[in-house]
Amino acid sequence: MTPSAEHPGAPAAWYENDIDRVLVSETEIREKTAALAKQIDADYANTDGLLLVGLFKGAVMFMADLARALTIPVEMEFMALSSYGQRVTSSGVVRVLKDLDTDIKDRDVLVVEDVVDSGLTLSWLLKYLPSRGPRSVEMVSMLRKPKALETGINVKYVGFDVPDEFVVGYGLDYSERYRELPFVGVLKPSVYQSS
Ligand SMILES: O=P(O)(O)OC[C@H]1O[C@H](OP(=O)(O)OP(=O)(O)O)[C@H](O)[C@@H]1O
Ligand code: HPA
Ligand SMILES: [Mg+2]
């Protein structure tokens, strides 16, 4: 599908030349978010409030949509971790750019991610968060790549399994661009091979 397929008649947008194809459309994202929220609502129905921990910057769009789709009360916290910078492969090193502002002791924590790719970011968090004494830690990610499955990280709630291609949109960037696109698309390799 081309980016404009969901908005027929709209003029070609600035990003159309950079996107090879749409992998997950706006509509699919909306429907999947509602389905995930329903599942999470049910699983946490008997707890006294869920703490969503979103990872800046990528998870911002998903965090905002998921929080509004849930019907149980939530609190929202953010951490900023970075391992990709201006690259299309992980640097292998997770940098903490912003830590939690709140005590998570005895809280039910749900980490909210845009994508689990090599799994490095989430495996680092899975070592870090338990040292702060939460009652439980689970994860939800809108996207998961095949490498993450190989690492055996248990992401309880997954939106879409996507192929091992560099994707952008719905929070995901290449060199800080494309985060605002409402869909997830495959970036043409020519965009990053030429820069
Ligand atoms: O499973 P991994 O290979 O660790 O990759 C996943 C992480 O990488 C991206 O973050 P990035 O470091 O690009 O920071 P950003 O969210 O600010 O773009 C993405 O948002 C995930 O947090
Ligand atoms: O495919 C991706 N796109 C953007 N950011 C990412 N961080 C890990 N994988 C990706
Ligand atoms: Mg990034």
Description:
This protein has a single domain, classed as Rossmann fold (3-Layer(aba) Sandwich), CATH 3.40.50.2020. It is 25% helix and 28% strand. The chain is built from five helices and nine strands; from the N terminus they run E-H-E-H-E-E-E-H-E-H-E-E-E-H. The longest helix has 18 residues. The mean pLDDT is 93. The structure holds 1-O-pyrophosphono-5-O-phosphono-alpha-D-ribofuranose (PRP), hypoxanthine (HPA) and magnesium ion.
Please state how the strands of the largest beta sheet are arranged side by side: 4-3-2-5-6-7
Shape: globular
Which structural class should the secondary elements be placed in? Answer: alpha/beta
CATH class: Alpha Beta
Give unreliable regions as ranges: none
Q: Summarize the main sheet.
A: 6 strands, mixed
**Could you state the oligomeric state of the chains shown?**
single chain
Strand content: 25-35%
Return Rg in Å.
17 Å
- How many H/I helical runs? 5
**How is the CATH topology named?**
Rossmann fold
**Mean pLDDT over the residues:** 93
Q: List bound small molecules.
A: 1-O-pyrophosphono-5-O-phosphono-alpha-D-ribofuranose, hypoxanthine, magnesium ion
CATH architecture grouping: 3-Layer(aba) Sandwich
Q: Estimate nothing, just give the exact number of structural domains.
A: 1
Write the H/E string, N to C. Answer: EHEHEEEHEHEEEH
Helical content class: 10-25%
Subcellular location: Cytoplasm
Cofactor: Mg(2+)
Family: Belongs to the purine/pyrimidine phosphoribosyltransferase family.
GO cellular component, one term: cytosol
